[in-house]
Specification:
Elements (H helix, E strand, L loop, with lengths): L5 H18 L20 E7 L2 E8 L6 H14 L15 E8 L3 E2 L12 E6 L2 E5 L1 H7 L3 H11 L13 E5 L1 E5 L5
Antiparallel strand pairs: 1-2, 1-3, 3-8, 4-7, 5-6, 5-7
Helix pairs in contact: 1-2
Length: 184
């Protein structure tokens, strides 16, 4: 897929913010586009920060409806369902920053050494355990490919070296990442 235009990116950020505001009863629900790139099925993650601190990050790799509807649903989920944080409240809105990651479908990596930091996000699966990290996470933390693999294993609840085991599945995906105060 081609990258989103600046106008499409701005529209998705507005949809994400609008969905959170609507959930809090502070604004009407935003209208979803019915045509164009935002109407296409695509997975997405939404990340929320309040006063610079992470307050939620939830997403879906599997498209369930349009990119716009996925972003709206994931924004509300990030604000209310991330078990690591208290739900975002009306008092948090003034300090709320929104980021969106529009995802390409994950694909299995035959060789973990093919991970490209800054380009790939990772999904690690083994048994019932599954963990995913967005491409920006490795960049923000200054990780090399091996550190990225280790941390994705930890996110999945696995030992850090699980990615080396033959029954551990590693997938890479690309994401168009953008947000308020965030440059990809």
């Amino acid at each position: 897929m081609t990258p989103l235009s600046p106008a499409e990116r701005a529209a998705l950020l507005g949809l994400a913010r609008g969905a959170v505001l609507a959930h809090l009863g502070l604004a009407p629900a935003p209208a979803l586009p019915e045509t164009g790139a935002l109407a296409q099925p695509r997975g997405a993650f939404v990340t929320l920060h309040v006063s610079g601190e992470l307050r939620g990050c939830i997403g879906s790799f599997r498209p369930q409806g349009s990119l716009a509807s996925t972003v709206a649903r994931m924004a509300v989920a990030a604000a209310t369902e991330d078990p690591r944080f208290q739900p975002v409240a009306a008092d948090d809105v003034a300090a709320l920053a929104v980021a969106v990651s529009a995802l390409e479908p994950p694909r299995r990596l035959a060789d973990p050494k093919a991970v490209e930091v800054g380009r790939h996000g990772l999904v690690v699966k083994k048994g019932w355990n599954r963990g995913a990290l967005l491409p920006k996470v490795a960049v923000e933390n200054g990780w090399d490919a091996e550190a990225f693999l280790r941390h994705t294993c930890l996110k999945a609840g696995l030992p850090p070296a699980a990615w080396r085991e033959p029954d551990c599945e590693i997938e890479a995906f690309e994401a168009d990442e953008f947000g308020e105060g965030f440059e990809a």
